[in-house]
Amino acid sequence: MDSASGTRVLDIQDGIVRNIDTDGASYDLSVEGVVVPGLVDAHNHVGIDVGDEHAQAAEPLAVNLMRGVRNLERSLLAGVTTIRNCGERPGAEPVWIRALAEGWIRGPRLVGANEFLCRTGGHSWYSAHQVDGPDSIRRTVRENVRDGACFIKVAATGGMATSGSDVGRPEFTFAELAALVEEAHRLGVPVGAHAYGGQGADDALTAGVDVIEHGSLFSDDQFARAAQAGVAVVITGTIIPAFLASDDVPWDIKEKMAPFARVAIDAAARAKAAGVTVGVGTDGVHGDVVGELELLLEAGFSRIEALEVGTRVNAEITRGVASGQIQPGHAADLVVLEGDPTQDLAHLRRPREVMLAGNWVAVRTPAPRERGSR
Ligand SMILES: [Zn+2]
User: How far apart are CA 155 and CA 174, in angstroms?
Assistant: First the structure.
């Protein structure tokens, strides 16, 4: 982590940091405070809120889109400058990406999977693209890449938030998963597999997925396999407590989730011990990357390690434009804080300013002062 003190001048061109501490043509941040890289949320769904996901999916798509607009802004104001978006209702994500590109709405950079792929009747079937059989799966992968997906997201095991779905059960046949991964890799995009544990997690690792989402019920052997294969695991620790605290969540979902309220902390500790690359995602607790980092402290990470997870490591897992570090060649995504988060992560909860790709985009939006010859 780059923690510098004193006056710093960044040379920013076209949204990218070119040089640090150069004289002459340069860009004075014109702010005082502790500057850290913008946070990266490595697993979210901007169109979904904590609550009754099935009911939300039954609403008109326009409602879903507007919810996403609010959540994008909420994340940005919280200092999140990149979201790895892990699957949306068909048709939703391209609209936000267009609106962000046009400047109609404000929000973090979206690195998205477009649709969420599940088997017919599988986890999140009401909002996912249901697909069965290797040939149909290949076609769906191709369609998603055609429509802008940066990676493919697939449910390899059941999930918590779907009534009747078993988190320990594999969702696809191995032949289906293998076809999905092979097709995605042939087209040059990585695969993120929703996998809690059990046979579905083994199948996902054997099929060669690039990222495991959740991983909360992985065995130590499975974490060792992930570490060996260089597969990152994105822990989602705040979402289940948020569901349990919500009045909008159906009772059967709460009953299923209750025993798993803190398994993510244990999983993060065991993944770290096994040498796995650990990322974090809010999975619907929009903007609260800090909450995820605080859970990592409980799992034995230091504050600096947690901060690196929320910035550099999450950015590397996301594989979008280079970000998550204040370094030449990386996006000028910055958050200005009142205090040093390596002393207390809570400072991350009160961003003074947020810069995305060289532009002040949130909070107080001061007019930056140009300095030098340009
Ligand atoms: Zn998710």
Answer: 13
